[in-house]
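Take a look at the protein record below with the fold in mind.
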Amino acid sequence: MMNDYINMFKQFLPQTATVLELQQPEKKPAVIVADIDGDHVDELIGAFRYQEKNYILILKNRNNQWQPLIMISGSGYGISNLLAAPLTETGVNTIIIGWQQGSMWSQLNLLQWTNNGFVWLPTNDIVYSKLEAEDMNKDGRYELAIWTHDTGEAYKVEVYRFDKTGLVQAKDVYPYYFKKVAAYYEKLLQTNDFSFYWYYLADAQMKAGDMDQALVSIDKALSFSSPYPSKEVLAEKRQEILNHQGTTNQDNRVVIDWKIGDVTGDGTQDTVYLTGEKTEGSPFWKNITLVILNGKTNMYETIPLKENMGYNPTIFLGDFTGNHIEDIQIVIDTGGSGGTVYAYVFAFLNGSIKQIFDTDAYNEHSKYEVNYQNHYKVIVTSSNPKKEYTLDLTYKGKDYLSEIYNADGTLKEPIEGWVDPISGLYPIDYARDGMYELLSYQEIAGRYHADGLGFVQNEWQWNGQEFVVNRQTVSIFGKDLSV
C-alpha cells in the first residue's frame, strides 16, 4: 500500500527530482500519509530534492483525485525526520521535519495547518541529533524529546511540548521519559566505562526521580582522574542531585502533588510540590510541606505549613493578587466532622514567597451566632462582615418542627446552632480576566451536625494588602417536592 503512495507522489515531481530518503530507524523514502487539515481525510506528504534544493510537497485527495496542495522549500542536503503528530491540540497533526545539516545535526521545522493556511511554528532554532515524538502524559498532545550530541555516544536530552508561545520544557513528564534515557546509558556503560556516560546517566536518573542512584552515578564520574565534563561541572551536578534528594527522600517523604507555573515572576516555569509522609494503610498524610523548585536557579525553597497533617492535599496555581504571577493555593482535608479544611495561599511579593491567606486565622477572627426564634425561624449573625440573615424553617416539615416548637409556634426551649469552620475554598475567575477570587463555604448547623440549615458563602478579593470579603451570602436547602 505504501509503495502505491510513493509512486503516486513521484508522479507530481519534476522530471529530474528525486525523493529524499530517511535513514533511521530504517532506510526508506521520506513519504508519509496523515490528516493535517482536520477533515479526517489523509494527505500525502513527501520530501524531494530538485536542482540542489530540498522541498516538501503536500498532496490532497479531492473526489478521489490527488492534487497538489502546497510545495515548500527546505534547507540542508537531506532529511532526517518526517512525521506527523498532534503538538498544538488534540486531533490536529503538525508536520515535524528534520533537515539534515551535517552528519550529526538536523534543523527542526514544524509546519502547521491553520484557517489561514500553513504556518511555520516557532522552534527556538533547535538543532538536534536525534528526535522522538510521543504522547508522554496521555493527554492527546505529543511531546518532543530532543537529543543533542555531545561526545562519543553521549547526548544532552531535553523534552519539550508546545504551548501558546512555542516549545517549552515539559518537566512534568521527566520521570516517565528519563527512565528511558537512563536505560540507554546503563546499556552503554556495560561496555564503555567513561566519565561522560556516568555524568549523563546521573542527570537522567535525577530527572527520573531516582536520587539515590543518581548520587552513586555522579560519584562514579567524579572518581575519574581527568573527567569530562570537568570536576567543577560534576560537582555542581552532585549538589543539584543533593538538593533534589532533600525533597524526595527526607524522612521518607514523597511527592503528594505538584504543579508547574511561574510563581516567582522571572518568566521561567517553576515546579511546586507538596511532600509528606504517608501513613501505612491509610490515606492520612503527615509533615505536609510546600517545596518550590525555582526553574531559573534550580534551587529549592522549603516552606513548612502551620497545619501539616490531613487528607487529600492539593495544589492550585493562579493569579489571586493581580500581579500576573501565579500564586499557590493549598487545600488539605482535616478529616474532622463537618468536612472542614486547612487552606493557605502563598504569593511572590516584594521578592519572596509570603503566606497571604490562612483559614485558621479567618476562623479565629470571624464569629457567627445561630439562634432559633419563635415561629419557625433561625437568625444567623455574622461578625465580619456585620450581617444578619433570617432562615425560614417551615420547609423542614411537621415532624422536625414539632420536636422543638409548641403548637402556637413558640420554642419549647432556647436552641443555639453554629457555623462550621471553612469546609471548601475554591478559586473562581468571576470577571474572566485571569485574576482569581476565593469562594469559601461554611455549613450552618442546627441542633447537631446532620441538622444542616444551609451554608455561609464568602467571596474573597485581594485589595492589595490582604484578602477581604467582597460579598457574603447565605444559601439554604430547599424542600424536596418529590416526596
In short: The mean pLDDT is 91.
